[in-house]
Amino acid sequence: MQDLHSFGWYAAKLKPHLPKKAFQPVPTRLWGGLAYLVITVVALLTIGLLDVFPLFYVPISIVIGASFAALGFLGHEILHGTVVRKPWLRDFLGAVAFWPLSTGPKLWRKWHNLTHHVHTQHEEHDPDSWPTLERIMKSRFLCWVYKLPLPVRAFFSFCSLSFQFTVHSVNMFVIYLKEFNPKKRPAVIFEAIVPWMTWIGLLVWVGPVKWIFMFLLPLLIANLIVMAYISTNHRLNPTTEVNDPLANSLTVTVPKWVDVLHFNFSYHTEHHLFPGMSSKYYPQVKQLIKEHWPERYHEMRFDKALIALWKTPRPYQDRVLVDPSSGEVFGALGEGLDTTNIKKVAKKVRESDLVSSLSNSKNQK
Fold it and tell me: Does residue 59 sit in helix, strand or coil?
């Protein structure tokens, strides 16, 4: 891998080439959020008030789930301060947008803005990074899981995308709550509990059958859409000691109409260079990156990125991806991964090394 640079180093090089308006909030993005909110409310009322055979609710559930995900993408943008700047309004609108995913704005800014963005792909400090082989070997359950063949693990991993965001969000709440100032903790707890209270209240109001189609199935769909993006953001990239977005982040390409629906969420490398910039201007940032550092920039068609995730193991060891069950090593982006012909690299982790890692982990216990 080439020498790494911080995101600030890249941003300083590119900022003079960008218009000043690119660094101003873009409140017109809220019109898209209003459209999704109206669609969601109308769809929920349709299921709630219409008594038909439950299978007829499925298409409506898909629409609700897609709207949940899109609102989450907008909430992500709002809480970076790129839509409105007033803190109370930013948090209020962010809370509304993240309501379907039941993630509070204060938790999100702590977990995502202040930790993930600062320590992206750092194996110890990034709460969203995939664990290293050494960390996996410390868990008896994960040791058993990683003995399964790679295709089997990949299948269950992709199935888990339908609930990963929700589970991870709850986990982040447990981890980060104690780091908040004691005076702010009640607000953080309130933001976490109230959305779930509304969804539980909905269950009591409409009953379990309609609730499945009004919330549970849409939540699974939203998780799947959101996590399909998040999984491609960094999991094919290596871990890095220096927070270098061109090394540790991946931009995926989707049809233009999808970018419109998802608020340009596919431009992830650009987002890590300028998290305080509206995603409206990320196509301009992408063009500048490709002009300055075309050999360092990683982009991939969305479907091919998902296929690459399916075909490669996830644990990291020495910046590459290793399969604990076979010892086979696959490159990461910039570290030997050929996305046009995904295969293991020439070297292979010796079984004795895997046993040694496991032994060391047990001794540490």
Answer: helix
What ranges do the domains of the chain cover? 7-300
110 contacts 118 by C-beta, under 8 angstroms: no
* 206 contacts 256 by C-beta, under 8 angstroms: no
Biggest alpha carbon–alpha carbon distance for the chain: 63
Q: Where are the alpha helices (DSSP H) in 56-131?
A: 58-78, 87-98, 105-108
Query: What is the distance between the alpha carbons of residues 28 and 173, in angstroms, rounded to a whole number?
Result: 31
DSSP secondary structure letter of residue 22:
G
pLDDT digits (tens, 9 = 90+) for 318-355: 788 988 888 888 889 988 888 777 766 655 555 445 54
Instruction: Please tell me the distance from the alpha carbon of residue 75 to that of residue 195, in angstroms, as a whole number.
Output: 15
Question: What residues contact residue 289 under an 8 Å CB cut-off, 6+ apart?
Answer: 10, 14, 246, 269, 270, 273, 297
Kindly indicate the confidence band of residue 31, based on its pLDDT and cuts at 50, 70 and 90: very high
Sign of the alpha-carbon dihedral angle for 34, 36, 38, 40: negative
Give pTM, 2 decimals: 0.91
